[in-house]
């Protein structure tokens, strides 16, 4: 029967469940946040042109040497090497942007090059993959041009800020006897004619340079952010994955999930059909034959008929017991009336193995009905496996929901027992069908069952809370157990 979690001394310790991610600290906003990111953005921008020029020299040398030797086999392989080198420089750009504080850019789904698709297909895939050509164009043309511009502006702005703020220290050591043009004098003549002669040109030049240095310093974080965003925009357009690829991947995942769900439901229906055929159906046939025999003997041999009636009553009772057992494969009314927590508590109470039930579901869990129903079936199957195969004396059932920082919601269901272990999701094992069911829900089944035990099985199922927007979203990533 089920026991309260506080009295589960005999039960194995509940597995550690990854806690919900703490709410992220409110990010700094405004001008102060721009200054906080200046060191990383400066490091990104100052290295941009050296890396871009290095990529241009290396990739152009290899690529155009391969083009010149295209008639020879070695030329083709040199071009392929150039494609992969350009891919490396493009990936480096994505990593540097992430380090500079920009949001993650989804990378392309590169074709497999491990030979599984054939040697020639893997070798020549860069020629037919548009991403390789975009990475090559980015390395040879776009990035050098953009990097030279951003690097020049970066150096000019840093030099202007530092030179203007420190000019009053070092400029007195520079001779200016033959200097005939003073910028402050020229500006004063344009603003207020005749006032330039009232201002000492050397002092005016120092003040003007200081003001320019302050202006460069105050606008420096804005310029750095703009240059970094320019590189980020170029990288997103040329180095990121295409939206069509994300849609194709989503369709493939949904197809795989649907196939797994269909296979799991088909297996469940076949098992139920087999159980009904081998159990209650055979008993009902026997009951029908007994009733026909009773009808024939009722007048001629009442004593024999009475004995057959007793046997028929036993047959009817056993058939009812089997039907009740089979009906547990359907969602109980308690699940619909009081929710998943109450249904799992009743399920744990019926288990022949002592089960400690930890209910981490809040009153506002807002679980969709299909998720509740599938979670109930998964828990029922796991507890059945514990009772039949694990040789365990105690178990623990834990369920909870959690919301991640990316907005996804997960239902975590764990079953731990102190049995002999050895559970596996390999084909032919008892957990293979459960794995299909969980993958059909776009979740993940985690199994840790070394020989000798204990066994820990966790089902992580994503869900959309009832009442939340159910529009299309990016594919979710299973949480780390």
Automatic annotation (TrEMBL):
<keyword id="KW-0547">Nucleotide-binding</keyword>
<keyword id="KW-0597">Phosphoprotein</keyword>
<feature type="transmembrane region" description="Helical">
    <location>
        <begin position="70"/>
        <end position="89"/>
    </location>
</feature>
<keyword id="KW-0472">Membrane</keyword>
<keyword id="KW-0418">Kinase</keyword>
<protein>
    <recommendedName>
        <fullName>histidine kinase</fullName>
        <ecNumber>2.7.13.3</ecNumber>
    </recommendedName>
</protein>
<dbReference type="Pfam" id="PF13796">
    <property type="entry name" value="Sensor"/>
</dbReference>
<dbReference type="InterPro" id="IPR036890">
    <property type="entry name" value="HATPase_C_sf"/>
</dbReference>
<keyword id="KW-0067">ATP-binding</keyword>
<keyword id="KW-0812">Transmembrane</keyword>
<dbReference type="InterPro" id="IPR050482">
    <property type="entry name" value="Sensor_HK_TwoCompSys"/>
</dbReference>
<keyword id="KW-1133">Transmembrane helix</keyword>
<feature type="domain" description="Signal transduction histidine kinase subgroup 3 dimerisation and phosphoacceptor">
    <location>
        <begin position="270"/>
        <end position="333"/>
    </location>
</feature>
<feature type="transmembrane region" description="Helical">
    <location>
        <begin position="42"/>
        <end position="64"/>
    </location>
</feature>
<feature type="domain" description="Putative sensor">
    <location>
        <begin position="44"/>
        <end position="239"/>
    </location>
</feature>
<dbReference type="InterPro" id="IPR011712">
    <property type="entry name" value="Sig_transdc_His_kin_sub3_dim/P"/>
</dbReference>
<dbReference type="Pfam" id="PF07730">
    <property type="entry name" value="HisKA_3"/>
</dbReference>
<keyword id="KW-0902">Two-component regulatory system</keyword>
<keyword id="KW-0808">Transferase</keyword>
<feature type="transmembrane region" description="Helical">
    <location>
        <begin position="210"/>
        <end position="228"/>
    </location>
</feature>
<dbReference type="InterPro" id="IPR025828">
    <property type="entry name" value="Put_sensor_dom"/>
</dbReference>
């Amino acid at each position: 029967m089920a026991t309260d979690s506080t009295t589960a001394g005999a039960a194995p310790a509940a597995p550690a469940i990854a806690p919900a991610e703490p709410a992220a600290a409110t990010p700094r906003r405004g001008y102060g946040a721009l200054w906080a990111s200046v060191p990383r953005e400066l490091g990104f921008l100052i290295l941009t042109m050296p890396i871009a020029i290095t990529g241009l020299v290396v990739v152009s040398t290899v690529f155009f040497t391969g083009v010149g030797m295209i008639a020879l086999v070695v030329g083709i392989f040199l071009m392929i090497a150039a494609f992969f080198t350009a891919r490396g420089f493009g990936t480096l750009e994505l990593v540097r942007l992430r380090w500079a504080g920009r949001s993650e850019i989804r990378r392309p789904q590169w074709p497999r090059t491990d030979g599984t698709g054939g040697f020639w297909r893997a070798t020549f895939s860069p020629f037919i993959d548009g991403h390789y050509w975009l990475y090559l164009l980015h390395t040879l043309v776009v990035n050098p041009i953009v990097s030279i511009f951003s690097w020049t502006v970066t150096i000019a702005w840093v030099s202007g800020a530092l030179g203007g703020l420190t000019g009053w220290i070092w400029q007195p050591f520079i001779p200016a006897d033959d200097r005939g043009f003073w910028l402050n004098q020229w500006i004063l003549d344009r603003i207020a004619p005749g006032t330039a002669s009232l201002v000492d040109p050397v002092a005016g030049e120092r003040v003007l340079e200081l003001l320019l240095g302050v202006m460069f310093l105050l606008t420096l974080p804005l310029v750095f952010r703009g240059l970094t965003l320019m590189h980020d925009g170029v990288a997103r357009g040329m180095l990121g994955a295409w939206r069509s690829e994300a849609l194709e991947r989503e369709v493939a995942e949904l197809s795989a999930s649907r196939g797994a769900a269909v296979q799991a439901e088909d297996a469940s229906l076949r098992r139920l059909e087999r159980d009904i055929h081998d159990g209650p159906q055979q008993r009902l046939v026997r009951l029908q034959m007994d009733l026909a025999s009773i009808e024939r003997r009722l007048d001629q041999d009442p004593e024999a008929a009475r004995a057959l009636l007793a046997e028929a009553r036993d047959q009817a009772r056993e058939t009812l017991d089997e039907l009740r057992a089979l009906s547990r494969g359907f969602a109980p009314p308690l699940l619909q009336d009081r929710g998943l927590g109450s249904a799992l508590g009743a399920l744990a109470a019926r288990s022949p193995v002592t089960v400690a039930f930890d209910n981490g579901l809040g009153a506002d869990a807002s679980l969709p009905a299909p998720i509740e129903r599938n979670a109930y079936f998964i828990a029922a199957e796991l507890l059945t496996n514990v009772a039949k195969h694990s040789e365990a004396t105690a178990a623990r059932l834990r369920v909870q929901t959690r919301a991640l920082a990316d907005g996804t919601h997960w239902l975590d269901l764990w079953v731990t027992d102190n049995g002999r272990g050895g559970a596996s999701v390999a084909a032919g094992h008892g957990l293979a069908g459960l794995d299909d069911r969980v993958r059909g829900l776009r979740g993940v089944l985690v199994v840790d069952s070394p020989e000798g035990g204990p066994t820990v099985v966790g089902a992580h199922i994503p869900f959309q809370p009832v009442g939340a927007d159910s529009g299309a979203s990016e594919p979710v990533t299973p949480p780390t157990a």
